[in-house]
Write a structure and sequence with these properties.
Number of helices: 15
Distance between the termini: 40 Å
Helix content: 25-40%
Number of strands: 18
Strand content: 15-25%
Strand order of the largest sheet: 1-7-6-5-4-3-2
Structural class: alpha/beta
Number of domains: 3
Radius of gyration: 25 Å
Length: 521
């Protein structure tokens, strides 16, 4: 084993404590690696897609070493947790480094002593796992036969579609792909041969850091991918007849038995269906939840328990049928959704099928902090008003991606009634919406929230008045928002503080924590 590679593996064996972790200085030279880090920092999606288009025409994946002006080639890759790790060597087996990918083309570049990170990186998806890289079998390393392909695989569907697949779909001459544990891939995709050992995520910039409302390029990439997924799914032929075909109203209702759930979802679904029944003879309800990898089915006890409660609730309503889609794959779900009139779903990954792929009318709900797909939607896509949303915080559940919430089901029904009026020209009588906090429990929670706000923010005036720098003021305000449970706002403020004081240890540490929490959808 070459000495340099031995040193790198020894450092990896010791884990993150073996390395100094610094931001990569993309201004120190004009190498291709520096240009990638620069484009990532500037969110230059067009430049990064152009990079991939050119690389896709090459047999090998080669980049300049992050510290030295030496060309290196990808010789082996492996995945662990949510990240992909690519070992790079020069033609003599020296100058080793590891390219770590999570949401970006390069999230981190790992050398023997230093780990270089990009500005936006979520360190916790990578650093705790690098010790596993020391267990590689060096006999698997190839140089002369290290043809590279792409891997489309992520444990979380949002990142699969919007960090990986959308960029892969933008490549005209596609490389062969590894489809192991993939939520979706095209039937005409070139499958990697057995024995191929180098695969890369086709990432550019993590979608959590982009906004298609503000970028026509991002919008174009998202919509092209979504249309491709929809058309591909329609190629799947159903053997059995559509069970909803003879119904007057077909509803898609998304549920979750885990994080970030609408706490009234069972009563809400049953009562919404019951309230629509006077206007429709037959109602069919698809209940959606956890999704399986392509071509498989899975069980999810929590989501299925929610479905069983809903099924029992609607069983007593004449002319209503419920069917679970929990554990189906995206192709099957898209086919079912094609016959849906409208949806009610959370505004995270649970709305991807009806909102983004099939473009159905509907109602989006979420806690007050999280809205995964900001965009300008048609009038028949409604979003619940934050006036009627009450977030439920606790010590273990204060991050936006996890916070569950109360919403009066009558408010959701009234928005759905507006949708029905637009798509079916049927006037549905709206219901009176009870005020949040009308019961003792909600009053107690609101009082607790008020006390929390007073406790976390009451010292700001004192801090601002004691001669702090702008970076320190931003830092303290961010810490107050963190304590109040609003990590998204805390992260945005701490990013501003970091720009003013890039070497502040507290600022850097807290910013890494916030990014890990926010980006872990």
């Amino acid at each position: 084993m070459p000495g340099e590679l031995s040193v790198l593996l020894k450092s990896l064996r010791g884990g993150e404590d073996s390395f100094e972790v610094v931001e990569y200085d993309d201004k120190k030279n004009s190498s291709d690696t520096s240009k990638i880090f620069e484009m990532q920092r500037k969110k230059d999606v067009t430049g990064l897609v152009d990079f991939w288009r050119k690389k896709s025409e090459e047999k090998f994946f080669e980049l300049t070493h992050p510290e030295r002006n030496v060309k290196t080639r990808a010789v082996y890759s492996l995945q662990h947790f949510m990240s992909n790790y690519v070992f790079m060597l020069d033609r003599y087996g020296g100058n080793p480094w590891v390219m770590a990918q999570s949401s970006f083309l390069i999230d981190m570049a790992i050398t023997d002593k230093v780990i270089y990170k990009n500005y936006f990186v979520d360190e916790r998806t990578i650093l705790p796992h690098i010790c596993k890289l020391s267990e590689v079998n060096l006999d698997d390393f190839e140089y002369d036969f290290a043809d590279f392909g792409f891997v489309l695989s992520n444990a979380r569907p949002y990142h699969h579609f919007y960090d990986q697949l959308k960029f892969f779909c933008a490549l005209p001459d596609r490389k062969c792909i590894s489809t192991k544990s993939s939520f979706f891939f095209g039937s005409d995709a070139c499958r990697a041969k057995n024995g191929q050992k180098v695969f890369l995520f086709p990432n550019a910039v993590g979608n959590s850091h982009l906004n298609q409302k503000e970028s026509s390029v991002v919008r174009s990439l998202n919509e092209a991918m979504e249309l491709s997924v929809y058309r591909e799914a329609l190629n799947l032929r159903k053997v059995e007849a559509d069970p909803s075909s003879e119904c007057d109203l077909v509803l898609w209702f998304g549920v979750t038995g885990q994080k970030r759930s609408w706490l009234e979802q069972v009563d809400g679904c049953v009562n919404i269906v019951k309230s629509f029944k006077p206007y429709f003879d037959k109602i069919f309800v698809y209940v959606d939840g956890m999704t399986a990898m392509q071509g498989s089915r899975i069980n999810n006890k929590e989501d299925e328990a929610v479905f069983r409660e809903i099924d029992r609730g609607v069983a007593g309503i004449g002319g209503v049928t419920a069917q679970s889609l929990i554990g189906w794959d995206y192709r099957e779900k898209i086919l079912c959704c094609n016959s849906v009139d409208f949806f009610i779903a959370n505004a995270g990954s649970g709305c991807m099928v009806p909102l983004r792929f099939v473009k159905k009318p509907g109602v989006l709900h979420s806690n007050t902090k999280l809205f995964t797909f900001p965009d300008e939607y048609p009038s028949y896509v409604k979003r619940v008003s934050n006036y009627y949303v009450e977030d439920v915080f606790n010590g273990k559940n204060s991050v936006a991606m996890h916070v569950s919430y109360h919403i009066p089901w009558q408010h959701v029904f009234n928005l759905a009634a507006d949708v029905v009026r637009e798509i079916k020209n049927i006037e549905v009588k709206k219901l009176e919406v009870p005020k949040l906090g009308d019961d003792e429990i909600h009053n107690s929670e609101k009082l607790k929230d008020k006390e929390e706000v007073e406790r976390h923010f009451s010292n700001l005036a004192e801090n601002v008045g004691r001669g702090l720098s702008s970076a320190e003021i931003l830092r303290d305000v961010a810490l107050s928002f963190e304590k109040s449970g609003d990590v998204h706002t805390a992260m945005k403020l701490m990013e501003k503080a970091h720009l003013l004081r890039p070497n502040g240890p507290v600022i850097k540490r807290k910013l890494d924590e916030y990014r890990a929490l926010v980006n872990g959808k």
